[in-house]
Amino acid sequence: FAVEDIRNFSIIAHVDHGKSTLADRLLELTGTIDKTKNNKQVLDKLQVERERGITVKAQTASLFYNFEGKEYLLNLIDTPGHVDFSYEVSRSLSACQGVLLVVDANEGIQAQTVANFFLAFEAQLSVIPVINKIDLKNADPERVEKQIEKVFDIPSNDCIKISAKLGTNVEHVLQAVIERIPPPKVHRKNPLRALVFDSTFDQYRGVIANVALFDGVVSKGDKIVSAHTQKTYEVNEVGVLNPNEQPTLKLYAGQVGYLIAGMKDVTEAQIGDTLYLHNHPVEPLPGFKSAKPMVFAGMYPIDQSEYNNLKSAIEKLTLNDSSVTVHRDSSLALGAGWRLGFLGLLHMEVFNQRLEQEYNTSVVLTTPTVPYKAVLSSAKLIKEYREKEITIINPAQFPDKSKVAEYLEPLVLGTIITPDEYTGKIMVLCQARRAVQKHLIFIDQNRVMLKYLFPLNEIVVDFYDSLKSLSSGYASFDYEDAGYQTAELVKMDILLNGNIVEELVTIVHKDKAYSVGKTICERLKDSLPRQLFEIAIQAAIGNKIIARETMVVTSPEK
Ligand code: GDP
Ligand code: MG
């Protein structure tokens, strides 16, 4: 394929707006998969993806399409839509020149539509708006067109109205991909320059790196070097994803495909790494921001004899998901375990579910916390800790106030889109979460987009559920990293009959200590197994008890 006959594009959308269904139709229309089969989200390969109906890992497929007598190669990269995986979205985008921005004709623009649009916009990609589900009884594509014009400044004429489910107008989408997205800007005569935009681990073949070639050619037998590790490898196999791996002789600049070169784990094929030919070093491509864990939790085997099994399962799973960070940890009550860092709560749940389903393990997870920081107060301490600012990923290691100049808490900029009737209630909720309003606009007559700066710890636990329930499920939410702010933090101990339980230590904002302490004690009272003797449940800051519940002995139920 000549470079001008190649298009690399991605599909982005709010969750459930129909990316995967549209991908199925595009695969069928181009003959990549059989139309007779009952195709449902064929790119969602993992069990958890099928069960939850969400896409976790981005998947790539090469499509061949004949348009006006000419054969085109269209490389489609399906991406996850959920906030926790926006890291995957931006990675996929770096291999593309354009995106299909899918919006549900009934729900309209939602929080992740906005977040995903701006990822594409910042990467300077061509955006093709696609209004999906026009077959629905309540579909209102004209209203959605107006929202798209207002929020993204895209003329409503540019919108393509489709039903991915029924296949209506899907050919127009393929034509728009050819006409509106530019071919990749690459040079085949230059020496090889390939971007690793994803990698997976296969038990038998080792690391399979997904690559986009910006310059040159790569063939089986070539010697390649990783710009990141400077290690040299021999290429064992190259090919395209159709969507399953199909070996080819070579991959040329402009193509997206895979490469296997005896890399042992995904850390050797770092996402964002540049590969080049041995003896032909090139300027590395701009890499990616590395994924930053936002939520930490302790993980322990339910039974210590399962420790080694769990260890090997965690190792295997992180081979495939390098965005999870792993530190060894131990606790008096729970034994040896780990402290894991995740991109968000859904990411944590998905990881846990994959451990259980794919590796048959069962674990105890402790309450998630966010990465607080402490700025140390003296040169002596800085020398002792070997850094000025320490990150606290485990509340039990919260440094005492006497050592600290100030504490910092992570912030996020949250976007909420809601029908106007819920705006008042949502503002009250946000205020209770110590959030500061930054922005409010109407995106149509009765829908509002709000932006708030939130302390991250105020949204990790039950913010999303509260938002959903007070808006009858209509409000959507997304957030992005927004740095740190000074915060008055305190460590709160939980005591059972006067003894501190290390696993229950939490870090709270000073203003919230009483209410959080009270809630924790009440919840514990309800959830602890009944005992034959009285138990005092207390929350304390330093020596001061701030909340107390007593679990009394009750006679066994009849
Ligand atoms: P994704 O989360 O964006 O990948 O969304 P999916 O492709 O998994 O679709 C979410 C749900 O919407 C599924 O139940 C689909 O069957 C349904 N869906 C997708 N496209 C259409 C459409 O054009 N019309 C209707 N009525 N339903 C659709
Ligand atoms: Mg999907």
UniProtKB/TrEMBL annotation:
Catalytic activity reported: GTP + H2O = GDP + phosphate + H(+)
Subcellular localization: Mitochondrion inner membrane
Positions of GTP binding: 13-20, 78-82, 132-135
GO biological process, one term: positive regulation of translation
GO molecular function, one term: GTPase activity
PROSITE patterns from the UniProt entry: G_TR_1, G_TR_2
SUPFAM superfamilies: EF-G C-terminal domain-like, P-loop containing nucleoside triphosphate hydrolases, Translation proteins
One Pfam family hit: GTP_EFTU
UniProt GO cellular component terms: mitochondrial inner membrane; mitochondrial matrix
Domain Tr-type G: 4-185
Keyword hit for Protein biosynthesis: yes
Membrane topology: Peripheral membrane protein
The entry's keywords: GTP-binding, Hydrolase, Membrane, Mitochondrion, Mitochondrion inner membrane, Nucleotide-binding, Protein biosynthesis
Role according to the record: Promotes mitochondrial protein synthesis. May act as a fidelity factor of the translation reaction, by catalyzing a one-codon backward translocation of tRNAs on improperly translocated ribosomes. Binds to mitochondrial ribosomes in a GTP-dependent manner.
Family according to the record: Belongs to the GTP-binding elongation factor family. LepA subfamily. Belongs to the TRAFAC class translation factor GTPase superfamily. Classic translation factor GTPase family. LepA subfamily.
Protein's name in the database: Translation factor GUF1, mitochondrial isoform X3
Species this chain originates from: Heterocephalus glaber
Taxonomic lineage from the root: Eukaryota, Metazoa, Chordata, Craniata, Vertebrata
